[in-house]
Hints:
Number of strands: 10
Number of helices: 12
Largest sheet: 5 strands, mixed
Helix content: 40-55%
Strand order of the largest sheet: 2-1-3-10-4
CATH architecture of the largest domain: 3-Layer(aba) Sandwich
CATH class of the largest domain: Alpha Beta
Number of domains: 2
Radius of gyration: 21 Å
Structural class: alpha/beta
Strand content: 15-25%
Amino acid sequence: MFKNKKMKSILMSVMAIGLSASLVACSNSAPSNKEASASGGKLDYPKRPVEMVVPFGEGSASDTFARKFASIMSSNMEKPVQPVNKDGSGGLVGMVYAHGQSNDGYTILEVTPSHVIADVLGTGQDLKFLEAFEPLARIQEDIYVLSVPANSEFENFDQLLEVGKKKEISFAGVSPGGLDDLTLNALAGATGLKVKFIPYGSGSEVKAAVLGGEVDVYLDKLINTVGYIKDGKVRPIVVLNDERITEIDELKETPSTVEKGFDVTIGSWRGFVVKKDTPQEIKDYLIDQMKKVVETEEYQKFNAESLTNIREGFLGPDEFKAAMLKDYEKFDEVAKQTGLK
Length: 341
């Protein structure tokens, strides 16, 4: 992904800024376990607002989620959780910024599969996400849907496979080596499809290319696809899931990848981490607060509206770590197969 000199230059500048912030933060070292607790066993935290780093732009799905989550979380804390956007380089700018802060629990980083992929492809250079941060919780998970334009020659997934084993099937995306690219290539590897990635400048351009019939297939998260499906602009042919999605009428007849015999169920997800060696008492407190948010009626309503309630999203720190390591193995395999690594 970062093969050109311009992107490397940007990333090196970001790393330099992160290092400077880290040196400043070191003067305020994280409290020890004893220092983290006040007399009587009560945790003396938080004393000031907690920063939630959103490593994507304002108005994005990750931003919308983070702001809703922070709002609910703040209502049960003595000090608020304040989202701050640090967009750029597919989530790396935010990651570098968060790593440059003190490991005192006052900086939480929102994370997605993009951060695991950065480790796989080495785009974070010397900063390794899975080594530098510790998980708090995974909160939600999206499901991918593979669709075709309404006027497509492909009526179903079986027809796509029949043709796609003989000639390349084109699909649009924003960044080679991103989650969409690796996911479709994982499906291609399992099914024998020949696929061709066609880059576009933005997500809106990708959608325009799909609706204009410039590409053969459209792979996107359920929440981004369902409106087009209901409007008859695209036709779903398979969902990357263990079973059919019966909660949505327009998808009840769409088979799942597992149903078709292909164990490819990669989805997107969102969760939170803190810098390594953050005091355990503070991590426990934050995890507890996140569990409380997930259990609220307000969040559950938001989760249902976002269509991220179909799969069980919440994972505690140990399970979240294991899931990310499993994702690393899958993405690493696909990256090697496609020549990205």
